[in-house]
Amino acid sequence: MRKISSLLNRLNKNSQIIALQDASITLVPMILAVTLLVMLTELLALYSTLPIVLTLRSIYHHFYIFFPFLFTITLSLSLAKSLGLHAATLILLCCSLLFLFVADSMSSLENLNQSTFYKLLPIPLCLATANLYRYFSQKKQLQIIQSNDVSFNIKSNFNYILPLTITFAIIISTLLLMDNLWQKQTDIQHISELIEVESNNFLHIIYLKLTYKITWFFGINPSHIFSFLERPFHAALIENQLAFNNQLPIPNINASGMYFFSDIGGAGSAACLLIAILMFSKSRRNKKIAKLSVLPSSFNISEILHYGLPIVFNPFLFVPFVIVPIILHFNAYFFTWIGWLSPVVAPVTWTTPPFLNVFLATGGDFMAVVIQLLNLVIGTLIYLYFLKMFEASNLDDQLVSHFYQKIGIDSKNMQTLQYRNQHSLTKKIDSENEINTALARIIEGNLKLFFQPILSIKENRIVKVEALIRLEDPDGHISLPTFIDTLTAAGLSKEIDQWVIKTVVQQSQQWANKLENVSISINISPEFLLKESTAEFLIEMQQQAKHHLNFEILENQVVFNERKINENLKKLRDHGIETFLDDFGSGYSALSLLSKLNIDGVKYDLGFARSLDSDEGSQLFSSCINVSQALNHTTVLEGIETQKQFEIAKKSGVDMIQGYYISKPLDAQQLIDYMAQRKP
Fold first, then answer.
1. The 3-state secondary structure of 592-629, one letter per residue
2. Which of 86-95, 302-311, 586-595 has maximum average pLDDT?
3. Considering the domain 428-678 in this protein, what is its CATH number?
4. Could you tell me which of 83, 151, 309, 475 has the fewest CB atoms within 10 Å of its CB?
5. What is the Cα–Cα distance from 312 to 221, expressed in whole angstroms?
6. Boundaries of every domain in the chain
7. What pTM does this model have?
8. Within 13 Å, how many C-alpha atoms sit on residue 42's CB side?
């Protein structure tokens, strides 16, 4: 089972799956409003035949007619966030393609509602469009403006043109081809004749359940597409009703209404999952969704669970969502077959609450209530097993919330967090326990900043200090930030970067005139520089600081995001903010990268310092310095620990050095004392 859990975990962390889940969750407020509308409508229908009832039902009907359009918007937005694309552009592109393709069906809403292709199209359309657009937008040959002499907005807008045009042409051509095949092969009448479902054939029942649940998994209500599959069961119910009224033997076990035993509280037997969450879940978020679903589920309306938890596009919950109804149906079938349970003999509205629905449907058989209760217990136990696996695969949302409070940043949507660095999450961390442990350590202790002096060789003085994060445990012990890689894998590097930058600015304001002619260097992750708003944030922080800030970008990831990061680097350079490529030589190095990035300097990894004792190492470092000088880059060498390394580094022509030979990292007051001692 561990292998199954690991497979499901990797599927659940796939960026496309996460985008699909996020798109579903975005629709929850609208689905909740429509759900309440349905409940109100059904209550009014019990006591009134006023026109308002028809109007309310019409609103519900029209909502699900336009649901594919709404889902296209939310999915485009989610994919844009996941793939780093311009959201408005992708939304307009996907919606335009969908609109153009179904324009012929929009002569009336009913024509649109009857279009099966229209209901199935949004997911493949958005996925294909987003990935194609991303692929072509990364091709430099398709960029109309490659110069950095024009403004960022003008350059970006012009460079959208060719990727958009090519993507549009490919998708629209594919859709026209598919539409032609669809019209020839999938006329709905042809399908209904081709697929004949026999109500008393149990294999056909399994087929029907699988078809419905798989369709639900992709966020599509199957009753809007495959309602023709239910016709034999409606006919079987009519036969049962006639036999019951004439006191004849009931001919059919499987009839419309039998789903009350297998889909308790809504599709997939949502009531079973609801109970499992409310009784056993450790996730506050999941419990909130479950509480919101209690009232609708009592009327067999389960969309809030489907889209809010979500069940749709969720590999963990898809398995029980499919197998639970099949097992529960078999259970009810068995008890009916041996004569303990009366067959369904009366039509009952689908919104009739559990227990009451089976009691009425079986003509008042109390045993039906007992069997439905038994099914509820069985389904809950099955869901519970998969629910535990699902929650074990996710971050502890309470720890994340406390972490945000600890570092003074507003809590974010947990689903958005999943977008961050999905590949690292699946490759480097097999279990979220490591992340939760790191968060717990931070919450229990205190994050602190230390500052390591950097010496200018030419001026023979401290010209810069690097801000370094440390963790102080409850006993006062200071430890290195071993949690950084783990939190980066969890997608929390941006939050750490923000905390460090804001804390540095506060410290700079406190130092004011106590620390003069010194700049402060801050490490930031490449991922942080992918956000369009990052440059503006850093510029604002510089304006608030009393010292000049410069930023070091971790070289071990930057090569994968060169173009987008470069745009923000140019903005910073235009505002006089220097940036350095950090840890150059740590394993991902490419000399060609130095000439491509809008950086002002390079910090060479401590591995170079350790190799200075050998002739080969010193010669290699000197060659690297020559390259940097040719590019007008300021150079820094970290990791200097001995007099010999210091002397060799000086001869190499490096501009600045850093390491324990100069000073260990110091807290704020220690740094002031250290600088006072160095004054001539």
1. HHHHHCCCCEEEECHHHHHCCCCHHHHHHHHHHHHHHH
2. 86-95
3. 3.20.20.450
4. 475
5. 11
6. 428-678
7. 0.61
8. 17
